[in-house]
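Pinned message: reference record for Large ribosomal subunit protein bL33
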Amino acid sequence: MARNELRPVVKLRSMAGTGYTYVTRKNRRNDPDRMILRKYDPVARRHVDFREER
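Predicted structure (tokens):
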């Protein structure tokens, strides 16, 4: 069974420059632009913005 392309897998990379990433899914219909989420970066040991990579 094929995955639906309405909710693709996206990689979120830390904007702190540590190279740490999260992997999540997003709804393209609700969020057509790049996602920016504030999440915990264990390398920097603080909450930073994570931006969607393409």
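Pinned by admin. Summary line: The first strand starts at residue 9 and ends at 14.
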